[in-house]
């Protein structure tokens, strides 16, 4: 059965509810499995575990966009995970549906601008809204959806590894303790203890679990896991403290190589920037490369930076310190390259000029700049040509708490084995 998730904020909107119910019926008739949460999630309430599970495993998704959905944090977060999966190469079909006679640019200010690159399903402007015709348009886009399971993408592989690690505790009641530490409601514990798919269901919850709950869940699981498995599991989860919406901005558009991408993060340490990349790429070990560089200090603030950074790119990514060896590999665009520059202070116009020169040589390079306490001025940001701001902004306390938690996770296997 091919799972199709329907994202909506339709309650209280008669026409949106009619469209949702029509889609649900028509999908089932075509042997799809529609996944619909019929209830509103009140502000401040954590995601329902089954919604997270659906978002992580669906084969396709429909996003119903009415005026209420544009104001919904939950719809925005659902869209973020769907587009995160798509940016990582998942074989996922996402169909946004515009209701209420909304223009396509209405999604811009609602944090769902990525949907604009996808063909919207909608009735013609000014024509009567009709649920059946909208369903026809959506189902037409699902006509070629394959029945075979999709190939694995980095998020699916990451979740699969978590499932494998968690399966070591399958026969232990500590799996339930971990679910309780993640604050899953009693009605969802049955999913965790199920013989088939229980560990994957729990793995899906780690995708968006707050870091304090994640740490408590790991501590509960630890006695049921081998030292080696626990070390792998803690390593796989160390970067999950990073806001997933901010991290996803570091991924280039789906099926397109990056083009002169620059991202700004107001962090104090390069290690934080690396964790943002790990979060974005779901700890992928293939297809993504990350290297770091400092900022040269000299009289030629533009040229020296450019020369040193270009040399670092050749040496770090391609092991080519000598100019005669500097040939780009033919499979260059099969991988995504991140170059972290530890500026430690807000970049100025000279820094921007040096980055532009670096990108003129390596347009496919994603440059991630750590700016210290403050982001650059609006004028300098504008000179970057649409830089990606990784928000919400960090504080020194955010980084300190994350570093201390990372240290505890590193030491957890030894603590539970009595070696520490």
UniProtKB/TrEMBL annotation:
The record ties this protein, via SUPFAM superfamilies, to: Toll/Interleukin receptor TIR domain
Keyword field? Receptor
One matching Pfam family is: TIR_2
Q: Which Gene3D superfamilies does the record match to this protein? A: Toll/interleukin-1 receptor homology (TIR) domain (3.40.50.10140)
Where is the chain membrane-spanning?
A: none
- InterPro entries from the UniProt entry: TIR_dom (IPR000157), Toll_tir_struct_dom_sf (IPR035897)
Where does the record place the TIR domain?
1-128
Q: What is this protein called?
A: Toll/interleukin-1 receptor domain-containing protein
Organism of this sequence: Streptomyces albipurpureus
